[in-house]
Design a protein that fits this description.
Blueprint lengths: L2 H7 L4 E6 L7 H7 L7 E4 L5 H4 L9 H13 L2 E8 L6 H4 L5 H18 L6 E6 L12 H6 L2 H13 L4 E6 L7 H15 L6 E4 L2 E3 L7 H9 L4 E12 L4 H19 L4 E6 L9 H4 L3 E2 L12 H9 L1
Parallel strand pairs: 1-2, 1-9, 2-3, 3-4, 4-5, 5-6, 6-8, 7-8, 8-9
Antiparallel strand pairs: 8-10
The structure holds (3S,4R)-3-hydroxy-2-oxopiperidin-4-yl beta-D-xylopyranoside (XIL).
Length: about 325
């Protein structure tokens, strides 16, 4: 059986992958991406981000995002929307604008409701807020926090809820996969949003890991967040290594993938897992982490690595 089928047989909603528009011209890539039994869920890696969807104020552009949404729908794959509000990949009119609180509130409301509304009824879950915290647990100092304080989270979530009442609304974050200051801050935020009846349905664990360093507390973290009344998901899984890859590193990577997948499999509230693209050919890792790569379950020639079997074992 293929990975999505295995995930469904374990009671999960999906096993999925990120993809990105430039890759879609690669027909050998598409042949695997389009297999809905392998990938039951798709996340656009870039084309729903603010710089892509609202490059100028009030001017929306759907070309890239529509292409991936239509592809997924054609393949019978469910979609995660990524994302509404993030400090990165922001157009300069947002990041360098100087706005009053009232102005930025309506900018966020307009962006989130137009984006989420454009795909109303077509998206399983939205990363409404991405990466709000620093690793030390303080709020990230970006245009949103600096202008609105913590209230921007509520503003974005409420706009998304109104635009698509059926979509699951997530906060997505990294380095919350182990206990620490960042996870504690996010947990406190979840608690306070829930207490204030702000719409929040899920927490995304990005899970960009390093071979040999997958946090042993991952399953506990998933359960701890779920206990606050949210679902959870592994949203951007990859497990990188210092290149070149060796048989020993690939064997450790296989074990590491199994452990991540098992952590989600064992937690009922963990609805699914998404890898941050399935092939090393199109992974974001080498261009972001110098000297590192080979983070995906398929190699650059679309040959399955030991990590593929590691995932299957976990399911
Ligand atoms: C990455 C994309 O994969 C790259 O193509 C892009 O250049 C930078 O962003 N956390 C996230 C994702 O939430 O949006 C990021 O995606 C990876 C880290």
């Amino acid at each position: 059986a293929k990975l999505h089928q295995l995930a469904v047989s374990k009671g999960k909603l999906y096993f999925g992958t990120a993809t990105d528009n430039p890759e879609l011209t690669d027909t050998a890539y598409d042949a695997i991406l389009d297999d809905g039994t392998m990938f039951g869920q798709i996340t656009p890696g870039n084309s729903m981000k603010w710089d892509a969807t609202e490059p100028q104020q009030g001017v929306f552009s759907w070309t890239g995002a529509d292409q991936i949404v239509n592809l997924a729908k054609g393949n019978g794959q469910i979609l995660r929307g990524h994302n509404c509000v993030w400090y990165n990949q922001l157009p300069s009119w947002v990041s360098s604008g100087s706005f009053t609180a009232a102005q930025l509130t309506s900018i966020i409301q307009n962006h989130c409701s137009t984006l989420v509304g454009h795909y109303k009824g077509q998206i399983y879950s939205w990363d409404v807020v991405n990466e709000p915290f620093n690793d030390d647990g303080t709020w990230r100092s970006d245009v949103f926090y600096n202008t609105l304080g913590t209230s921007y989270v509520q503003i974005a979530l409420e706009a998304a809820r109104s635009a698509d009442p059926d979509a699951k609304l997530y906060i997505n974050e990294y380095n919350i996969e182990y206990a620490g200051a960042k996870a504690t801050s996010l947990l406190n935020l979840v608690e306070s949003l829930k207490a204030a009846s702000v719409p929040l349905d899920g927490i995304g664990f990005q899970s960009h890991f390093i071979v040999g360093e997958v946090p042993t507390g991952l399953q506990t973290q998933l359960s701890t967040f779920a206990a606050q009344g949210v679902e959870v998901a592994i949203t951007e899984l990859d497990i990188r290594m210092t290149l070149p890859s060796t048989p020993a590193l690939l064997a450790q990577q296989k074990t590491d993938y199994t452990n991540v997948i098992k952590a989600c499999a064992f937690v009922e509230a963990c609805v699914g897992m998404t890898i941050w693209d399935w092939t090393d050919k199109y992974s974001w890792v080498p261009s972001t982490f110098s000297g590192q790569g080979a983070a995906c379950p398929w190699d650059e020639n679309f040959v399955r690595k030991p990590a593929y079997d590691g995932i299957a074992i976990g399911l």
